[in-house]
Design a protein that fits this description.
Blueprint lengths: L1 H19 L3 H21 L3 H34 L3 E9 L5 E4 L6 E9 L15 H16 L6 E6 L7 H21 L7 E5 L12 H7 L2 E6 L10 H13 L49 E2 L7 H5 L6 H4 L24 E2 L13 E14 L2 E11 L10 E5 L11 E11 L3 E8 L6 E9 L8 E8 L2 E7 L2 E5 L1
Parallel strand pairs: 4-5
Antiparallel strand pairs: 1-2, 1-3, 3-6, 4-6, 5-8, 7-16, 9-10, 9-17, 10-11, 11-12, 12-13, 13-14, 14-15, 15-16
Length: 485
C-alpha cells in the first residue's frame, strides 16, 4: 500500500513537473531530468525509487528553463506596458570556462540579459540622462518591476550603448554615463548598491544600422544582466560578473556583417565586399597618383578584397541559434577596414571603482609571446609577440607588425615597424585577433588574423589592409610560427 501510494504520488508529481515545463524550450531539460532522476531513483528502490527519483529529476531538469521562460514573459509584458522594447539572451559557461550567448539555453546558465530600447530614443543625442518626465516615469516603473523578478542573491550588471554619432572615445564615455544613470535609478528604487555593476561599451555593439534615424534610436539603449548564483556557490562573485563582461565584449556577433543580423532579409549571392554600405574607416585622401605598393604586398583594391573569416572561425555550437535566421552564404565578418577600433572599456562597481579581473590564466599553446612570419612575394612580414590568455582570450602582449621589402635573409632593418592595438573575438576552435595601427601616418591600417586555439603553427587566415596613394588595398597571407619571445 505504501509503495502504491508513493507510486501514485510520484506519477502525479511527474505530471505536474512536466506540465509546469510545458514551454517547448524547456521540454528537453525536463525529459533529461526525468531520465536521470529515474536511474538514480532505482538505486534506492527498484519500484518506488524510480518514480520518486524521476519526479524530482524532472523538477530539477526543467526548473531553470521554466523559471527563465516565465520571467522573460513577465519582463516583456512589463516593458510593453511602459512603451519599451525588450529582447532577451542567456549566458552559459561550459566546463572549459567558455561563455556563450543564446536565446533559449537551459544548461549552465549564469546570467540572463534583457536589452531595453524604444521607438523614440531613450536618451537624446550626447545626453546621459532622460529629460522627458513621462518617459522617465515609465522607465522607473519598468525598473521597479524588474527588481521584483530578481533572486536576492543575484548581482546586476548594467551595460550602456550609443549610436555611432560622434567619436568612438566620446561615445564610450557617454555610454558609461548612461549605464551609471540606470544603475542610480535602480538604487533609488531599492536595489542595494553592492549588487550593482556597470559598464559602457560605446558604439561597438550596434543592433541596428546607424545609417537611419530609427536604427540610431535603437542603438541608444541599455542592458540589464541578472548574474545568477551558481550551484554550490554561496554568493555571486565579482569574478563571475567580470567573466560576463569579458565574454560580452568578445562575442563573435559584435563583428558580423549586416548589423541587425537577427532580422536579415535574403539578398543576392554577390560577394560581401561589393555589397557593403558601411563607410570605410578613415578613408585615405583620394589622389590620381600611380600606386606605389608601400608594403610590397601586391594587394587588391578593398572593394574586391574578400576574407572568409567566418568559415575559419566557426560559430560556437551554443550560439548557432542566434545566427540561424541569417543566410549562411551571406554571413561574414565586417572587415577591420569598415570599423572603428574599439575603445577599451572598464567594468565598475556602483561606487565607481574599476573592477580588474585578477584571475591568472595560462596562455594558449601557440600564443604565449610567440613570433609569426611570412614571405609575401619579395616582402618579409613579421608579427609578434602575440599572447592570448587561454581562459579569458584577453591579449597579454602588445605586438608589432614589421614589413621588410625585398627581403633576402639575415637581420635587416624593417621598412615599417607598426605598433598595433589588439581586440579578440572568440570562435569555436579559433580566435579572431583584430589589430589596428596606433599611428595614423603608417600605410598599414589594420589586420584580421584567425589563430587556432588548439596549438596549430600556421594561421587559419590573415588579412592585411593598407593605404596606397588615396586607396585602400587588402592582401590575404598566411603566417607561420617561428619562435617564442
Amino acid at each position: 500500500m505504501i509503495k502504491k501510494y508513493f507510486k501514485l504520488s510520484a506519477i502525479s508529481l511527474i505530471s505536474l513537473s512536466i506540465a509546469g515545463c510545458a514551454v517547448t524550450k524547456t521540454q528537453v531539460g525536463c525529459t533529461t531530468g526525468l531520465v536521470v532522476g529515474t536511474i538514480i531513483g532505482k538505486q534506492l528502490d527498484k519500484d518506488v525509487g524510480a518514480y520518486v527519483g524521476g519526479a524530482l529529476g524532472a523538477l530539477v531538469g526543467c526548473s531553470i528553463g521554466h523559471y527563465l521562460d516565465e520571467r522573460e514573459k513577465k519582463i516583456a509584458l512589463l516593458a510593453s506596458q511602459n512603451s519599451l522594447n525588450a529582447s532577451f539572451e542567456r549566458v552559459s559557461i561550459d566546463t572549459d570556462n567558455t561563455a556563450s550567448f543564446s536565446t533559449d539555453a537551459t544548461d549552465e546558465v549564469v546570467a540572463s540579459a534583457v536589452s531595453v530600447s524604444t521607438e523614440q530614443p531613450l536618451f537624446d543625442t550626447n545626453k546621459a540622462t532622460i529629460s522627458d518626465q513621462e518617459q522617465l516615469a515609465k522607465l522607473k516603473t519598468f525598473l521597479g518591476g524588474y527588481l521584483t523578478t530578481l533572486d536576492t542573491n543575484s548581482k546586476i550588471y548594467v551595460v550602456g550603448h550609443t549610436d555611432a554619432t560622434g567619436t568612438a572615445t566620446l561615445n564610450q564615455k557617454l555610454s558609461e554615463q548612461r549605464a551609471r544613470f540606470i544603475a542610480e535609478q535602480l538604487v533609488a528604487l531599492g536595489a542595494k548598491p553592492e549588487r550593482l555593476f556597470y559598464e559602457g561599451v560605446g558604439q561597438s555593439q550596434p543592433i541596428a544600422s546607424n545609417d537611419t534615424e530609427d536604427g540610431r534610436a535603437r542603438n541608444r539603449r541599455f542592458e540589464l544582466h541578472d548574474v545568477m548564483i551558481t550551484k554550490n556557490a554561496k554568493s555571486v562573485s565579482v569574478t563571475q560578473v567580470a567573466t560576463i563582461s569579458t565574454a560580452k565584449k568578445q562575442r563573435l556577433g559584435n563583428v558580423v556583417n549586416d548589423i541587425g543580423i537577427h532580422n536579415k532579409p535574403k539578398v543576392s549571392a554577390a560577394p560581401a565586399a561589393t555589397t557593403k554600405t558601411t563607410a570605410i574607416r578613415n578613408p585615405p585622401k583620394q589622389t590620381s597618383v600611380t600606386p606605389t605598393d608601400p608594403l610590397g604586398l601586391g594587394g587588391v583594391l578593398i572593394d574586391k578584397f574578400q576574407l572568409d573569416v567566418i568559415a575559419k572561425l566557426g560559430i560556437p555550437e551554443q550560439e548557432r541559434g542566434i545566427f540561424s535566421k541569417a543566410y549562411a552564404s551571406d554571413l561574414s565578418i565586417q572587415s577591420c577596414a569598415y570599423a572603428q577600433p574599439v575603445v577599451v572599456s572598464s567594468l565598475h562597481s556602483y561606487s565607481g571603482q574599476k573592477i580588474v579581473d585578477r584571475t591568472t590564466s595560462e596562455s594558449l599553446p601557440n600564443l604565449y609571446g610567440t613570433i609569426w612570419w611570412s614571405k609575401v612575394d619579395t616582402t618579409g612580414v613579421v608579427l609578434g609577440p602575440v599572447g592570448i590568455a587561454k581562459d579569458t582570450m584577453q591579449p597579454t602582449k602588445q605586438p608589432i607588425f614589421s614589413f621588410y621589402k625585398n627581403y633576402q635573409g639575415g637581420n635587416p632593418k624593417a621598412d615599417f615597424d607598426v605598433p598595433v592595438s589588439v581586440e579578440t573575438y572568440r570562435g569555436k576552435d579559433a580566435v579572431l585577433v583584430r589589430m589596428y595601427a596606433k599611428e595614423d601616418h603608417s600605410p598599414f591600417r589594420c589586420s584580421d588574423v584567425v589563430f587556432s586555439i588548439k596549438g596549430e603553427a600556421v594561421t587559419k587566415t590573415t588579412g592585411v589592409i593598407y593605404a596606397d596613394n588615396g586607396q585602400l588595398y587588402g592582401r590575404e597571407i598566411q603566417l607561420s610560427l617561428v619562435r617564442t619571445q
